Structure formats: structure tokens, C-alpha cells
Fold each of these.
Amino acid sequence: MSSCGWSTGSTSNSRRYVDFFMIKRPSQAIFTKLFSARTPVRLFHSALRVNHHTLRYAKRRVRALILRHLDVFKLYADQPQARLDFLKREVLLDPELSFLMQYEDGWAVDVLVRLVYHQRLRLVQQKQLNSIRSQQHNYRQRLFTSHPRVSPELRIGVRCTRSKLKNDAEVATTSSAVALLATHLDSVTPSLLRFQPAIVKAGLCTDEHLHQLFRMLPTSRDNFILQALGTEKSTLFERVLVMDILEQMNKEKW
């Protein structure tokens, strides 16, 4: 089969494709190799008929869609087929990835999704970072809306102004240790990564929160973990492991 005849414009963000034709699905042997994490990159270039820059660009776009539409805390094999089918449609409908329409049955999308998902830990860390940034943004919004503007005359004698807001903002943006929570939870066997969203949702989203947790009485800490993880979704052993991980993170930070 002749090489793929499409080109990209160097002065435009949009991609134009010419001489469009359908690229057949490869043999099952090659298709299986494309799903392997150890497959050399050159095989992807050859099978997909794209250069290095196009493959890297496509992976970046697919990664963003995966973060938006899939639960990356689950293994690929545990993803509902309905969500995978929805993701595939979203990829094919992306104007920046329109060249993927020329692959028979959109088989290149399956390959790209699996290729990106091989780096699941990276996806989890990015998902957590996005969550922290969103919480920080919401925190700052609440912080500034809770301090309405007043006239210069009324500001006399008011101590809680810019310095306090700056300190509060610094507390909200300090999350270096908690940002690695997913890595610590995934480091044990079996993995406890599925508990990370519940812990963050319960309010543990900055290093100061982590430090404050270990200022509490042991019964208060146990109650926090119990309420965050729930008795129906976690075992006693898992809750003890999570508490041990948090305690170790607190010691490393402080």
C-alpha cells in the first residue's frame, strides 16, 4: 500500500489532509504488538504512518481526553466498555485529530489510548494535580469573596488585609507532599490508589491539612479515616495502612 498522503501546514494551527484514503487494520500479530508497553516507537510510526512529531502531538491530545472522560484510578481492563467507546468517539470528533478518521474502524484510536494508558501512574498524578489546582482556585475564590471591598475610610484600623490574604494563599498552594499521595498509595500491594479521591474529597488537600491531622488525638485521626474511606468500601487493615502512609508522609514533610 502506498504511503499516507497527508501534510500539515506550517503557518496554521489547523491540520489539512489531502489524498484521503482508508488505512486498513493491520494483522492481528502486529495489532497485538502495538498494545504492548515494550513495543519500539518506530513500529508505531510504521504502522500508523505518522512521523515522530505527529505521534507525540496525538498522544498529548488523547491524554487530555483520557483525563477528562476516564477514571484513571482504574486499570484499563476495569474500564467500562461504554466509557471506552465514548472516549473513542470524542477522539474521532476532535478537529485536531481528524486525520484519525482515515483508519479503518478507528483502530488507531485504540492503539493511541492503550499507548497513553501504559503510563497510568503519570495520568493519576496529573489527575491529582488538576484536582489540587481546582481546589486551590476555589479556595482563593472563596477567600477573596469573603473579604468585600470597603471605602478607604473604613479601612482604618483593619489589620486583616493583604498580608493575611497572602499568607492564606501560600498555605493553599503548599501541597508538595500531598501531591505525592497517589504515588504512596499505589506503592503498596495490593494498591490503595482507589482511596485517593475519597481522602482529598474529605478535605486533606494541602500539607498544612496533613500536619493538622497529626496534631489531632489518635481517636480523631481514626475517625477521619473511617469517615473518609467508609466501612463498606474499605477493610480495617486498609484503613490502618492508609493511616500509616499518611503518618510517614507527615514525618518526611515536617
Note: The first helix runs from residue 28 to 34.
Amino acid sequence: MGSQLGKTHQLSAGSLREVRREMESSGMMSESLDEIFQCAEEHFTKEPDCVKNNAKMTLHWNGKSLVFVSGRGVCEINVSYKQGSEKPSYNVTSHSLNIFLGRISAGLRVLSLANLEGARRSLDVWEETPKSLKTCFDCAIRGFRKEPACVQENAKLVIHCSRRNLPFISGKGECEISVSYSDGKPVYTVDEPTGEVYLARLGTCPAPLNVSSVVRARNKLESFGVMTQELRGCFEYALEALEEAPKRVQENALMLLDTTRGRMMFKSGKGEITITVFSMNGEFTHDVKMPKTNRPPRK
């Protein structure tokens, strides 16, 4: 064991397995070290070639360490037990933008708001990071933050920018989210897999408020096969109310459609005027709330 600790090993999946077998055969393998080896091999095999061929991996346990190096060892990998943790952690420090983006391109990032924000902060480390890439990450964070839980927990978000595809995946990745850069602006689009997901998104991510947008939402629910008599009646009433509303209301309102299937939202302008469509005694009606600044002063 002493010879293994005192030397630097070649970093590869095969070398990790070989050193692990040698320590097992010498009777020096502990349960914690075995789990560290398992963690190291499991994660390292998923790394892109830019990491596999140019990294320094250190396994830490009980005040001891084992070192593995490939290439110039530019990318630092540390595998250890963090205080209070039941499982070993695998941490990678990327010293170049190319390696950082290469790891994301390999699909190694779980999709979560925290991981998107962490990746965005990391981009500020490198001066050469394109502004367009930062802008796309900012757009992804703004959009993903609004998504309902059924999307956040089961989506594949891909940022297409700087000639790279950068995927973040949660669950089975069934809801596809694309963020791209076009004509100097980021574009955030979502392909909902089911009508239930589409309904849930209308409850947290307002669609544009105009007649064509409301009709498009109604037709999409019809095509998904989730349209009910209640929803159909709600949409019909909402369209009538919208067409009859003054232009100043149509261009600056938040329309809420409240049904037993949940709430759907449509927004125009700043959404300062709230229009709520709801059912009362079996009939649809609506309520309009003007912003306080537009209300006449009390006498």
C-alpha cells in the first residue's frame, strides 16, 4: 500500500480498476475507500475526452491520498467524503472555458435552477466567454424559474450557442426546452409532451394576451385531447370578453381563467389590469380590476 500511496498513477478507467484490485489483494482496502473508487470510476467514465486526457485525480480518505494523472493534469478532480455526507463526492475544477463547456456538452449536468445559476456564475471566470452565451444562460434561468414542478423535474434544456449544444437534464427529460441566440436576442421555446404539462405551464408562464394567442391555446388543448366542456366554455367566454374590452385594456392586462383544471394566464404589456374569468352558479362571468393609479381619488 505504501508504494501505491507514494507514486503517481496513470489516470484511466483501467488504471483505477487495477490499483483498486491491488489494494484489495493486499488486504488494505477499506469500505470507505472502496466506495471512493466506485464513485471515481463511475463518474470518470462519463467525462469527455478533453477531461480524460488532461486531468489530475486525487482520492482522499482518512488523511491519505492516491494520485492519478493524464496529460498535463490541467483539470483537477477530487473524490472524497464531505463532512456529514454518507456518500463520496466527485468534484471537478475546470481551468479553461473549453473544458468547462466540454463537460456540459457531455451531458454531465443535472437540470435544476441551482445548477443553471452555478454554471452562469462560472462563465464570468473567463474573459473570453462570449456575451451571447452569457445572455442565453440568463434567458434560460429566467424561463426555467417560471416553469411548474412537472417541467422542472422532467425536462431536457439545451442551450444552443457558440457552436455548442449544452444540455441539462432532469428526470427522463420528457419536456424539451431550447434556448438559442438569433438576431442578437435569446429565444426560449418549450415543446410540451402532454396536455397536462401544457395546462400546468399556462398556470405559471403566461401566454401572450391577444385573440390569436387565446385561440391557439384552445386549439392546442383540443389537439392534446384534454379539452373539457368546462374549459371550452371558459375559452369561449374569455374570447368574447377580450374582444369587447377597450384597446387600453387589451394591451395592458393579465387575464386569468379559473377552472376546476387549474388557472391559465395570458398577459399583454405590463399586465397592470387584471381580468379574471370564473364560473358562478354554472355560468361564466368575469371581474376587472384596474391598477390603483388609474382609480379616481376618493371624495
Note: Residues 230 and 259 are 7 Å apart (CA to CA).
Amino acid sequence: MEPNEIQLHCSQCKKNRPITEFDFHSSGKRRKSCRKHAEIRTNFDNWDSFMDDVRRFKHTGQGTTLAAVKVFQLNSLPVPTINLGTNGTEQAEATKALANRLVKLIWEHGGFRFTLHRTYGRTMTYYCCQDEEKSKVSKTKGNVLARSMKRYKCRSKAAVSIDLQAKTATIAFKHTYHEPYLDKHVSQEISEWLTNRISQCSPAALFRAVKDEQVSGYERVTHDQIYHLWRGAIKQFWPCDSNPPESLRQQAESDGLSITISGDIASFG
């Protein structure tokens, strides 16, 4: 070190080092750590390989754990190009949108839905929506169509960190297997439409009617969604038996009526 050479404090070494050992960011600002800690990464993970791991995990047995830390180049990810903007607010919104999209892809390929719980800087932390230790309070209280989601001790976490300088995304993922989440959400319009008709028709008839009447959101609704909502709510209308036709028959007999059931039509004698 030359006499009187300017020194900077390295945030990693916790020591003063010559200023010449501190490189510059692409923004023109000098790094806070010396060159010893600023080696450029040349080996990155492959997103398709990670998705293969996620898909295989979906078919493993109860109690199996998938744990991985992956680093991807932003331009290699299957997400639309995001305008990162020029100010802090725009960059924060863009990085959050990117992280949300990556976590949604994990859900689409693996069947496990993770929801955002906190944001710290450029790191977004998500937990499995079925993690009993991290679950949020339900906002669907009082809705006849709402069904409680089964919870598990799955010790979940997905932390997504976006580095705009290095143009990388790091995902620290951990999850213990359980029965994958089934999306039962439908549009508010369909939910209200079903509430008024759910005791009158079979799931198949309801599904056909939603499509025929083109209730808002009908393009995305599935038969499984209608069935699960119907099955959860119908128990309140048919208390005698879990099988609606049998419940109807028992209720009619208790009222002194005879009944004949054919398909979706019930005739009283």
C-alpha cells in the first residue's frame, strides 16, 4: 500500500482497504465491498430444470421435503420483460411483480400455492397458503360457499431476491410435501349466482348454466370448482344424508310424503 493512499471500509472484510480494490457498479457508484468479495458469478441455474424438480415433488410421498437455493439470470426466466423504471418506487413495483410471477409459476407447475407475507428491500418472502404456522385469517366468514382449507405443518418458505445490478433472481425454496392445493376460487359474480341456485341443481347442471348464461368469469371456471363449492354448501340444505337425493327422500318421508327422483327432477306423490 502506498503512503497516503485513500482507503475505504469493506462491508464484508470489516477492514479498511485501498480504494483501488473497490470496483464500480454499472450505475457508476463504487461498490461497498472489495474485489475479494465481488467475484462475478458465471454459473447460473436453469429454470426448466427447477420446474422439473417442482413437478416431480408434486408426486412424492407425504413428508418428503424439497429444499433448494437457485440463482437465475433475469433474461433467462420465462416472464415478460419488465420496465424497471428510473425511480425507487417503480423499481420496487417491478421487482414485486416479477417475484409474484415466478411464485405463480411454481404454483402452476407444482400445485402448491404460496402467498406474499412480507417485503424487505428487494426480497419478497412467501409461505404456503396451507402452512398452519403461517396461515392468514380467512376473510370469507359467513359465505355459504366458503370451505375451510386443510392445513399442514409443511415448514414452507419461498424467498425471492431480485438483484437489479447483477440482473439475477435468487429463489430460496423449502417445502414439505402434503396434498396439493386445489383452487376453488371463482368470480364474485359466479359466487353470488351459485348462492341463489345451489340447492336446486346438480353440479353438472350448474356448470352448464354458468356457461350458457355467460356469468362474469365463466371463461375460467371449471367443473371441479363448481363441484367442490356445491358439495361444501349442499350439506347445509340436505342435513339428513351426505347424498342429496337420499337426504331429500328421508326428509320427504319424515314429512309424510312419497317421492320419486329421476335425474335432476323430484316428483312428490
Note: Strands lie at 7-9, 16-18, 65-73, 114-120, 123-128, 157-163, 168-176, 259-262, 265-268.
Amino acid sequence: MTNTNHKDDKIDIFISYRRQGGATVAALLYRELEARGFQVFMDTVKLKTGDYEKAILKYINSAENFILLVSDGVFKSENVVWEVETALSLEGKRIIPIFINNNNIFENTPEKIKAIEKQNGVVLNHLNPNNSINYLIEQITSRADNLVDRITQVFDIDSVRSILDECKEIDEEIENEILSFVKQRIKNRVKIISKKKSKKFFETLFSIIYYTHAKKIAKELGFDYRGSKKRVSEESILWIQSGEKYKSSINNQGDEIDRLEILIKSLISYFSSRDGTSILSEIFEKNDLEKPATSRKNHEKSSDYINELFRHFDDNLSEIFSVLELTEVDVKNIAFKIFEDESPNKRKNEMISHILSWVDYEF
């Protein structure tokens, strides 16, 4: 029976190497990649007893990445040649040769695995291996990994506390140190979970960060940032699953205008045109919300109140409209600011639904 250290046989990286000349580097690379949160297969670690060939075949199939350590005479090993041949036969397998021990070219490659020479490789610099390993990780990092990277970068201590109950009692003097450590640990584990590309999982992940951060991340990674945070999280799944085929809807001039920002500006304009500051102040008091600290002129304070409302409810539009307690006339006036002459003639709740659907580009 084959014995493994992981309950789940799905792994991130399979390391293929020749014992003579490659075992030491393979062991060091295994430890380094595992420490960075990857699930790695190395035969001497994962295999104890049983059908060797059957187990190796299973792990090559299940690994997202196949790494070949290119040492002197690596292809003298029949096992290595068979492993490479197997990996090359699998469609979509990411294969990365790593040249070690001052090697930087393939030598005496068997004809049946010549295709390995077309794969982009990494030369391991033994004087500065971290740079080489960091470059390697860039090659094996998926879109889901990149998204997790950006999201965890904007975690604050409240975000971490919502994930780990044990972070509730934290000494302020070491808060930053703990936050940095926990973020790295969370990122490593979350990356493993994210490989399942679950829509629900990424919705949860996005729910932890503010909508402004979500939009910033989307802009940086190149997927559609417009609309509510819920829409941005849905777009992130499309971006991950589509890969290089992903095409943003932001194509035509003017498309980059975010409808959510238009809604926010319309609300600010509407409340600034009437006694908005006192109305918003009463709403904050009634709902026990902390008022924004502002020293601006009275007619400019509406902007601070509306922005604080969106920050507090994290762009949950249904809750924001509910808290504002708008009349049908209010909603129609706000709709007119948004749609102008094309403002539909609907009742209050229908109009609110129309606005929310418009913000999320449903039409």
C-alpha cells in the first residue's frame, strides 16, 4: 500500500530527478516549496511501500506542475525518462525544467522526449537560490493565486479576526508582527483551497475586504472592476476560469465609467441640493452609526456622510437604500439624476431594483 503525508492526493508540484547528482537539490527544493504553502510530491518523502510505478503515475496525473531537475546525465535514469514522457503526454500539464549544478542546457535527450527542450526552464543560482525559487514560483502561480495575493495584501486586523477567533485578544505592540505572520499563513492555506475555484469561496473572500480594495485589485489584475463588490467577485471567477481567453467588457470609450460611482455621486448631489446634512445626521443617529469626522462647509458634508454610509455597509446597496428611508419622490428624483430623460416610470421598490440592476450592468 502506498503511504502519503496528505489525505488529499491532489498536489501542486511533482519533482522528477536523478538520485545521482539531483537528490540533495530535490530535498532542498521540496522543503522550500512546502514551507511556502505548496503540496509537493517527492518520491523518497511520499512513497513508502507498494506499487511504485502505479503511485508515480497517479501523482504525475494529479499534479498541476511537473518539475524536472536537469543534472549531469539526468536522462541516464530510465525512471526520469519515463516520468518526463508521461508528463509530456498529458494535455495542459505545466512542465518546468530546472537546471542545477551549473547545467544550463539539455544533453543527450532521448528522441521520444525531445519536446522537453521546448519548455521554458529556470537556472538555479546556487549562490542566490531564493531569486531562482521566487522566479519558479511566478511560473507556477495561477490566476487564483494572484487574486488571493492581492486580497490578502489588503487584509486589516479586523479581516484577520473574522477568520481566526484566536486573534481576538492581541497585544497592540506586536499587532503588526502578528498580522504579517497570520496573513502569510492564511495566504498559503487559502491558495490551496482556491485551486477548487469555488464561486462561493471567492464571494466569501471578497466579503472580507472593502469594496474600494476589491475594485483596486480588479484594476491591477485586469478584470472588470465596475459595479458592486458582488459583481466584481463574480467577474473574478470568470477571469480565473477563462484564463487568456478572458475579455473585459470595458472596451469602448466611456465604458470605464463605474456606474456605482455614478450612483454615489447622484446620491451626494441629491442630498446636497436640500437640507441633506441634517437628514443624514438624523439617519446616522437613528441607526447608531458613527458620524464622519469632517470640518467642511455644511453643504459639502453630505458627501462625507454618503461616503461613510457606503464604507460602513461596504456597498451593500439594498441595506443603504433601506437605511436612507427614501420616499417614492426621493427615489424618482435620484433616478432622474442617473438616467435623466430615460428615467423609467416605476413605483418606489421597482425603481430601486431597476437602479441596483443598472449598477451591476444587468442591462
Note: The radius of gyration is 27 Å.
